[in-house]
Design a protein that fits this description.
GO terms for molecular function: hydrolase activity; metal ion binding; monooxygenase activity. Residues 16-227 form the Auxiliary Activity family 9 catalytic domain. Its EC number is 1.14.99.56. The protein has helices at residues 2-13, 141-147; strands at 18-24, 27-31, 35-38, 59-61, 66-69, 73-79, 103-110, 125-131, 133-134, 139-140, 151-155, 163-173, 184-195, 207-208. It has 248 residues and is mainly β. The protein has a single domain (16-111, 155-235), classed as Coagulation Factor XIII, Chain A, domain 1 (Distorted Sandwich). The strands form three sheets. Strands 3, 4, 5, 7, 8, 12, 13 and 14 form an eight-stranded mixed beta sheet that branches. The longest helix has 12 residues, at 2-13. The chain binds 2-acetamido-2-deoxy-beta-D-glucopyranose and copper (II) ion. Residues 15-16, 99, 173, 184 line the site of copper (II) ion. 2-acetamido-2-deoxy-beta-D-glucopyranose binds next to β13.
């Protein structure tokens, strides 16, 4: 009995996640297709870590660049480990429900999405979607991703200029964020080629570098979300780290 309990605790302490597949307008593009994804489900803790851009290395780097249209809905598919469940009926797939927090989707324009250096400090990342805390219900972006079977969605703005982009989706787990370096950043990147009649490319304050966008003690990173034993930030407004999503 004792050993069972210890195994249980160990499993939940390591109940992390990986963004490992992309969907376009609801169509699953296949495991790791067009992705740069970590092979480990461990998070990045240090906001200055270069792996904050496209995930902890070592990992995989697909040669594929997927064609999409401005206005399409892209989905990021999350799983506990590569392939999804770690064990049959894995309660921590796609992620342990303990991992409350926001999900954000960023893009950066690149010349060649297949080969672009994701740590190029010249990359200007802009946010196209974020799903933080719903103060009416006390639920987080992570809760909605789990309810959607492991998928979190973002719409590619119609105004965006055509060209190749990296798409980065970040899941920020805040269950231990009351300690400095306790927030857990999970992310992968997808390589896409956007066709569009739009001509907008975000610049200036709409964009950030990654790493660089966050500080370790930012109010959305170092935060106690547990209030009276409930991880709902006391239903107070939570501002998702980074810039607001572009609107155009
Ligand atoms: C991106 O799309 C443009 C326009 O359709 C096409 O000319 C180009 O070859 C595509 N690039 C890649 C890498 O697929
Ligand atoms: Cu975890």
């Amino acid at each position: 009995m004792k050993s069972t309990i210890i195994i249980g605790l160990t499993a939940s302490a390591q109940a992390h996640t990986i963004f490992q597949k992309l969907s376009i307008n609801g169509i699953d593009q296949g495991q790791l297709t067009a992705l740069r994804a970590p092979s480990s489900d461990y998070p990045v803790y240090d906001v200055t870590d270069p792996h904050l851009a496209c995930g902890l290395q070592p990992g995989s780097h697909s040669p594929t660049v997927l064609p999409i249209r401005a206005g399409d809905t892209i989905g990021a598919g999350w799983g506990h480990v590569l392939g999804g469940a770690q064990i049959p009926n894995d309660p921590d797939n796609p992620i342990s429900p303990s991992h409350k927090g926001p999900i954000s989707t960023y893009m950066a324009r690149v010349e060649d999405a297949a080969t672009a250096d994701s740590n190029d400090p010249g990359l200007r990342w802009f946010k196209i979607a974020e799903d933080g805390l719903d103060t009416a219900t006390g639920t987080w972006g992570v809760d909605r991703m789990i309810a959607q079977g492991g998928w979190a969605y973002a719409r590619v703005p119609e105004c965006l200029e055509a060209g190749e982009y990296l798409v980065r989706q970040e899941l920020l787990a805040l269950h231990s964020a009351y300690d400095r370096m306790g927030a857990q950043f999970y992310q992968s990147c997808a390589q896409v080629n956007v066709t569009s009649s739009g001509s907008y490319l975000p610049s200036g304050e709409e964009t950030v570098s990654i790493p660089g966008a966050y500080g370790q003690e930012d109010p959305g990173v170092l935060i106690q979300i547990w209030v009276n034993g409930v991880p709902d930030n006391g239903r107070k407004t939570y501002v998702v780290p980074g810039p607001r999503p572009i609107s155009c």
